[in-house]
């Protein structure tokens, strides 16, 4: 059974969990994430339901869990078929790791209050993303602190000077070569928390970050 696979695998042991420092806990969780991804690719785990129960049996904070539970489903549900052809393939085989960047320092579940902007530049057919205030900084999304290369960013669409409300955008955060933040991106870990030490909850600040027009998720809005 899936539970037996996890219980008998020494990589997933938890007997030292409460004796680890924060850094050690994150490293341990990352090893488990990599081992889990390798199990997926090897065929030991087949299909999303099995993957869910396998992750549940691991019973630990996995830095990649937001990739599986938020980034992938958002691509599946909000992208056009053309966009899915590109992004779903990359995300499903973990060539990229995604976060879901909605929560801001000043705004949690109050979606209409989000301040991050994505201003359309028709001369280049690009969106220009900015964090215009301190409270607009993305704050708390899991996987963002160290792990994610990309994120679905929730931002206000500004076009022709008009605020068109909240839309979703795929933004690359870090280089796929050396994992360093890209120009205009300030991203990192928010620091110590009361628990959940294996998850790299992070912050994101953007200054004039340009993305192509087709990186707005366009199934329901173009």
Automatic annotation (TrEMBL):
Chain segments annotated as coiled-coil in the UniProt record: none
GO biological process per UniProt: fatty acid beta-oxidation using acyl-CoA oxidase; lipid homeostasis
Keyword RNA-binding in annotation: no
Pfam families: Acyl-CoA_dh_M, Acyl-CoA_ox_N
Keyword Lipid metabolism: yes
Cofactor: FAD
GO MF, one annotated term: fatty acid binding
Family that this chain belongs to: Belongs to the acyl-CoA oxidase family.
Domain Acyl-CoA oxidase/dehydrogenase middle: start-end pairs: 99-209
Organism placement in taxonomy: Eukaryota, Metazoa, Porifera, Demospongiae, Heteroscleromorpha
UniProt keyword list: FAD, Fatty acid metabolism, Flavoprotein, Lipid metabolism, Oxidoreductase, Peroxisome
Localization, UniProt: Peroxisome
Pathway: Lipid metabolism; peroxisomal fatty acid beta-oxidation
Name of the featured protein: Acyl-coenzyme A oxidase N-terminal domain-containing protein
């Amino acid at each position: 059974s899936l539970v037996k696979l996890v219980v008998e695998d020494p990589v997933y042991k938890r007997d030292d969990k409460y004796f680890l420092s924060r850094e050690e806990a994150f490293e341990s969780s990352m090893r488990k994430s990599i081992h889990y991804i390798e199990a997926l690719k090897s065929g030991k785990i087949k299909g999303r339901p099995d993957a869910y129960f396998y992750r549940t049996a691991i019973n630990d904070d996995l830095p990649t869990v937001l990739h599986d539970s938020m980034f992938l489903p958002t691509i599946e549900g909000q992208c056009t078929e053309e966009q899915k052809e590109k992004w779903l393939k990359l995300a499903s085989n973990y060539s990229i790791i995604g976060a879901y960047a909605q929560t801001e320092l000043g705004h949690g579940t109050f979606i209409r209050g989000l301040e991050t902007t994505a201003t359309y530049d028709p001369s280049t057919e690009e969106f220009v993303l900015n964090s215009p205030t301190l409270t607009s900084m993305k704050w708390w999304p899991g996987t963002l602190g160290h792990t994610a290369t990309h994120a679905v960013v929730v931002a206000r669409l500004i076009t022709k000077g008009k605020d068109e409300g909240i839309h979703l955008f795929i933004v690359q955060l870090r280089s796929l070569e050396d994992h360093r933040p890209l120009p205009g991106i300030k991203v990192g870990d928010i620091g110590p928390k009361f628990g959940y030490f294996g998850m790299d909850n992070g912050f994101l600040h953007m200054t004039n970050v340009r993305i192509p027009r087709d990186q707005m998720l366009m199934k329901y809005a173009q």
